[in-house]
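ASSEMBLY PREDICTION REQUEST
Request ID: AP-0331
Submitted by: J.K., bench scientist
Number of chains: two
Total residues: 804
Priority: normal
Notes: Please return the full assembly, not individual chains.
Input sequences:
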Amino acid sequence: MTIDLTALEEITISSPSKIVMLVIDGLGGLPDRQTGKTELEAAFTPQLDSLASSAACGLVEPIGPGITPGSGPAHLALFGYDPTKFSIGRGVLEALGIGFELMENDIAARGNFCTVDSNGVITDRRAGRINTEKCAELCSLLNQIRLSGVELFVRPVKEHRFMLVLRGEGLSPDLNDTDPQKTGMVPYNASPRSAASASTAEIVDAFIEEAKKILRDHHPANMVLLRGFSRLPDIPPMTKIYKLKPAGIAKYPMYKGLARLVGMEIYSTNGDFEEEIRVMADRYNQHDFFYVHVKETDSAGEDGNFEQKVKVLEQIDRALPKLLALKPDVLVITGDHSTPALMKGHSWHPVPILISSPWCRHRGTKGFSESYCASGELGRISALDVMPLAMAHALKLNKFGA
Amino acid sequence: MTIDLTALEEITISSPSKIVMLVIDGLGGLPDRQTGKTELEAAFTPQLDSLASSAACGLVEPIGPGITPGSGPAHLALFGYDPTKFSIGRGVLEALGIGFELMENDIAARGNFCTVDSNGVITDRRAGRINTEKCAELCSLLNQIRLSGVELFVRPVKEHRFMLVLRGEGLSPDLNDTDPQKTGMVPYNASPRSAASASTAEIVDAFIEEAKKILRDHHPANMVLLRGFSRLPDIPPMTKIYKLKPAGIAKYPMYKGLARLVGMEIYSTNGDFEEEIRVMADRYNQHDFFYVHVKETDSAGEDGNFEQKVKVLEQIDRALPKLLALKPDVLVITGDHSTPALMKGHSWHPVPILISSPWCRHRGTKGFSESYCASGELGRISALDVMPLAMAHALKLNKFGA
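STATUS: Completed
Returned structure:
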């Protein structure tokens, strides 16, 4: 049983108390086959352990048992938005990922450069994975395409991947992919799924026609495939639901984009976690909620680099006292999902969480790790419970019903 | 995953086994800052501890993590009714709270006596918190108002608060509050939210007009504000869903009202828990389900009186053998929510539960407390799971599906 956002909004209250939510990307891990210890267990983290000893600890299910989340849904859930209801299209995610500032009615699509033969049949969906430099060069060519009634943005992402954004009046994202997702086929036209998207389909097809001409002599990248046409989801902002003045502090575009999506004010930094804390300290009086994102744990996990993930966790631990010196009323430390180095990717395993506040039951645990958190006072919670718990511990929730 | 009431009703069976559900109001607590022990942990409760040692124990989330429930939703959930679906309006709750017997189509509203200046602008929403005696006196004046086509009941609640009930044909509770919830404004008219409530709005406005005349010389209580227009929710009774003959034994009107709402036969008592057990013993052959409510733990918690809450828990413990002597097939002991003395009010923290029955797995716990129950065999359950578990342990549920 969980109450929905509308019911939650009715009981949230604004107050001076401050919440800091530190999201250590890909925090959860799996034990090294030799030592039997996860990355978090192998790391020397006296600050985190000490916090956990008097905090409410538990494990977070990002989506549900067995479900491995992408970064988008995992973050939405942590911010209290059910990712099975609020979905972020592939196109929008690419735009967020490169820091492209989407406007309300923009249509974004994920693009692939691909190879087609003389009959237009796809022979390689990724154009031999051209390098990112080449991708940028081709994108700047495609970006010069002019179509009447619509503004057009083509931006490189990585290797063969790019982003297409259409901006204009009366556009609709209700289109099927042009990418058939296999070789040996001719790319589809952009077929409309409803009457409202017929004219958008025509615009997309006109773009593809122009792109084809421009790319003719750029084998292997001589054609484009588009998928995931989408628009910014209509998400009620955290300012409205939680009555917070939320700030997001992150280094990577996608996380800044996700935070902007839910109504946070964004502070960029190119530095490490310590630098992020400095940014937060500078803005500490202007906000009552801070989302702080650390990416490097996830990157190390994705690389299968157990030692590097351990090292990043230890860096975080060393910087923690500077965060604690700000004395937030509620400190939440968790991850958006697990990224075990052993699996070189995101996984479904639940993620350790600690909520430090004077209003915990203070059973605490012996340390901050997957196994200790499994017997913490919070038990196993859904990511959707994190914000209500943070708000409750900050005394920012009224009673539900009388 | 929980099955809904319709599916549950299909598998409930009537049988001679007896269930006793003891609801210790506000049972859950927080540790005293000095001793580190919660009220339940500080109390000497050998009977409860002994029961817990061979019972199925766990922690109950009344609504969901972080959500602090009012008494209405918390009790509905314990009786198996999802409080996010069955909501009890403010007016109905006031009526239940003073033991006013609402009929099916009655419209109830919560009233405030307030102060208005010579321009009708509200200067005090609570009329200087007039005492309850004064409130009763003014209510008996308002109770004499006669309006055509409708019967009218005005009853004092406490201080500036009263209850208004309208009884008649064709009434609808679909009205906006007349209480603007702040001073410096003129009270609203009772605006209808739908065509069906237009005539009810006129009746309410006529009542307010009469009340204004009567109260003219009763400064500071010279006007009324009404809110929470509501009707008894349409709740399928426990007799139907569970095929039980349920009895409710409680001292305070609201709890008797809530029990009546779900179809229990009510037995009043003005005595303590021991007296409630005597009442139950007298009726033991007439029912197969007994809800027994103890209020004093919550009152002590609300007062911030840790010692008093401990004392009440110890009294309950001493009386328990008399309940056990009745040999119920299933004994459920839990609370509707936590009321930590430290917080002087309801809180979101989950509530200990024990289910004693020959059909438990008998992992048991070392005692009955927040921390022991956290590692009990039931784990963390929703309040909605309590009735299915009680019914299962009483062997009153058939298989779900074949």
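REVIEWER COMMENTS: Chain A touches chain B at residues 1-4, 7, 11, 359, 361-363, 375, 377-382, 385, 387-393, 397-402 (CB under 8 Å).
SIGN-OFF: pending second reviewer
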